[in-house]
């Protein structure tokens, strides 16, 4: 098709249309991500819904939509109906469809003790069906040919969301799709990538039942317990620096609550509501593995080596974009503690040594010593301290400048001449992991590598990491 391109997620062909939407002859699952409402919709007739910081609520069986299907953020338009998700309330409408069965969730999450929970209460109020669980509620009403479904922490929130009419829900969904369309002049594939990428960023902004900021979500799978990550949040919030800078500010304040006085930080900060928090803490305490990894009720996976650095990077990016040095001043004692923490972890070469564990981006890889990924973050964080400290703390800015210069001089210790790239890591015992990993490109992002080697690394990445150029891997151009 001229001016369009086809790609094949999960074996199902989709076409990027000129307007940035995606055309599929066969149905694919639509993930739903909104400030409160989240879930999955299968056009064949299955709607799974949850509420942020509460957990899974119910599965609805519905009449099926028929193709072809046009997909866009939180919206799918079919031949005989469509699904639209509101923004100002946790409610959606499924046009041209009915609910044939409602199956309440047995528990909020896999770790929830279902045996200790009261059974769901199902009530009818006129045309509305209301299912109330110990941790949330769902309200369902048929409005002519259109099904309207709302969720909440309780029945009041769910019923309140039904105030929106079908037309209002559709209008909010359409407006949101337009907001995500940030590059209308691009070719279809690039336009759709930007549209969906912007959706990933905007839809990560979560709210509590009162409309207050409740963290940046890494995705649906990271909502039980509800939590926000230092690392995932950093990469997700980049568009928000311009689109929603107040959300970045609030994320910084939220993350700050998870940092210990010595600069330690977990992988993420738990944000669950009262019911889910109580259930999660009971499980955490009862399981030896989880109790050993999640040391505090608010920690998701305590003491991650990269998390403090991402906090400094987030703060630095926010101040650079907004000029809000008051926010940096508010958290400056934390910044100092983090710098001190990595200085203590560094050798005479100025390069921090990661302990031998699996707690950084590579969550299931035990690596330690000199880790290219973490060293890149360290240099970037030091540059952020220099930029902010010039106004706030000249002594720390000078120290950070000297530390960054030393790290840059010595990062060559990780270079592998025979490969043309930096080592993934060099363990404390001297073992060198020489495979080329994408995460080592943090050395380039934060200008920790000299220009000639940065160029060599990029050429190496094109040859090895782009599947179309790598003839040694057996999977073709994927």
Description of the molecule:
The chain is of the alpha+beta class. 36% of the residues lie in helices and 23% in strands. It contains 15 helices and 27 strands. An eleven-stranded antiparallel sheet has the order 1-2-3-8-9-10-11-16-15-14-13, with helices on both faces. Strands 4-5-6-7-12 form a five-stranded antiparallel sheet, with no helix packed on it. Strand 4 and strand 5 form a beta hairpin. The longest helix is centred in the C-terminal third of the chain and has 21 residues, at 372-392. Mean pLDDT is 94; it is low at 1-11.
Kindly list the characteristics that best describe this protein.
478 residues, alpha+beta, 15 helices, 27 strands, 36% helix
The CA-CA distance between the termini, in Å, is 20 Å
Main-sheet strand order equals 1-2-3-8-9-10-11-16-15-14-13
Average pLDDT confidence is 94
Secondary-structure-derived class? alpha+beta
Radius of gyration: 24 Å
Number of alpha- plus pi-helical segments: 15
- Percent of residues in helical segments? 25-40%
Question: What proportion strand?
Answer: 15-25%
Query: Which stretches are low in confidence, meaning pLDDT under 50 for 5 or more residues running?
Result: 1-11
Give the beta-strand count. 27
Largest sheet: 11 strands, antiparallel
Q: Shape from CA axes?
A: globular
Oligomerization status of the protein chains: single chain
Q: What would a concise description of this structure say?
A:
The chain is of the alpha+beta class and 478 residues long. Helix content is 36%, strand content 23%. The protein has an eleven-stranded antiparallel β-sheet, sandwiched between helices. A five-stranded antiparallel β-sheet has the order 4-5-6-7-12, with no helix packed on it. Strands 22-23-26-27 form a four-stranded antiparallel β-sheet.
């Amino acid at each position: 098709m001229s001016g369009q391109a086809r790609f094949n997620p999960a074996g199902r062909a989709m076409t990027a249309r000129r307007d940035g939407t995606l055309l599929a002859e066969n149905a694919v699952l639509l993930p739903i991500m909104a400030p409160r409402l989240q879930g999955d919709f299968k056009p064949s007739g299955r709607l799974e819904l949850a509420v942020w910081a509460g957990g899974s609520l119910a599965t609805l069986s519905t009449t099926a939509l028929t193709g072809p299907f046009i997909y866009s953020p939180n919206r799918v338009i079919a031949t005989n109906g469509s699904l639209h998700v509101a923004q100002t309330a946790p409610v959606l409408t499924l046009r041209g469809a009915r609910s044939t069965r409602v199956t309440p969730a047995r528990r909020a999450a896999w770790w929830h003790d279902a045996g200790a929970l009261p059974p769901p209460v199902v009530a009818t109020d006129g045309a509305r069906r209301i299912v109330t669980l110990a941790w949330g509620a769902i309200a369902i009403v048929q409005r002519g040919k259109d099904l309207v479904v709302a969720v909440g922490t309780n029945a009041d929130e769910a019923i309140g969301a039904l105030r929106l009419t079908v037309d209002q829900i559709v209008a909010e969904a359409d407006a949101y799709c337009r907001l995500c369309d940030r590059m209308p002049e691009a070719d279809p594939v690039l336009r759709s990538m930007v549209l969906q990428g912007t959706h990933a960023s905007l839809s990560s902004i979560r709210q509590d039942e009162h409309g207050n900021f409740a963290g940046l979500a890494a995705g649906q799978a990271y909502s039980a317990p509800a939590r926000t990550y230092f690392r995932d949040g950093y990469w997700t919030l980049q568009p928000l620096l311009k689109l929603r800078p107040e959300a970045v500010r609030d994320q910084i304040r939220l993350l700050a609550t998870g940092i210990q006085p010595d600069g330690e930080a977990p992988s993420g900060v738990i944000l669950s509501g009262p019911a889910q928090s109580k259930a999660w803490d009971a499980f955490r305490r009862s399981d030896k593995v989880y109790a050993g990894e999640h040391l505090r009720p608010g920690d998701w996976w305590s003491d991650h080596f990269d998390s403090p650095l991402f906090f400094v990077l987030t703060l630095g990016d926010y101040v650079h974009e907004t000029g809000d040095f008051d926010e940096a001043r508010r958290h400056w004692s934390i910044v100092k503690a983090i710098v001190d923490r990595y200085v203590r972890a560094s050798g005479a070469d100025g390069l921090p040594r990661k302990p031998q564990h699996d707690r950084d981006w590579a969550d299931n890889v035990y690596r330690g010593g000199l880790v290219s990924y973490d060293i890149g973050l360290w240099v970037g964080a030091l540059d952020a301290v220099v930029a902010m400290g010039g106004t706030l703390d000249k002594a720390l800015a000078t120290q950070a400048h000297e530390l960054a210069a030393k790290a840059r001089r010595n990062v060559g210790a990780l270079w592998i001449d025979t490969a043309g790239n930096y080592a993934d890591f060099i363990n404390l015992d001297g073992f060198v992991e020489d495979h080329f990993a994408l995460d080592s490109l943090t050395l380039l992002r934060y200008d920790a590598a000299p220009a000639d080697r940065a160029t060599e690394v990029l050429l190496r990445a094109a040859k090895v990491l782009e599947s179309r150029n790598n003839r040694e891997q057996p999977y073709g151009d994927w």
